[in-house]
Structures are given as structure tokens and as C-alpha cells.
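Re-run with default settings, no changes from the original entry. Doing this only to confirm the output is reproducible before filing.
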Amino acid sequence: MSEPSLTAPHQLAYTYKRSLGPVFSKFFTALRDRRILGMKRKDGTVLVPPKEYDPDTGETLDELVEVSDTGVVRSWT
């Protein structure tokens, strides 16, 4: 006969607030409104989710654009 599992009551709570910053705030507000925003890079490609800096060049990015709600996922982690 097996022993019963040990259990203990636990309440998951986040006792802090996290600021999303200017880019993610706009991104998540758009998601709430059923829109998807991405950040346009200098070469014309768009990063979704948006980033403040180009991951390849380190350049500051600041042009948020609305993207289609259909597309192709090229990578995922």
C-alpha cells in the first residue's frame, strides 16, 4: 500500500507590480483591443513582439506598426 502524498495549502500571489515600459505597454494594450503591433526595423522587417532595440544591430527602434492577424511563425521558444 502506498503512502499518501504530502500536501500543504499554498496561495500563489504576486506582491509586486511590474512596469512594462513604453513599448510593451502599447503592445499589450493593443492585444487587449484585439490588434497586434510589431516594431519596424531599418531593413523593413517587423519584430513581433516588438523590441526597443534591433537585436542584430543594437539600433534604437521606435516605429510601432499594426500587423495582420494571420501569418507564419518562423521561430518559437
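The helical segments are 21-32. The radius of gyration is 20 Å.
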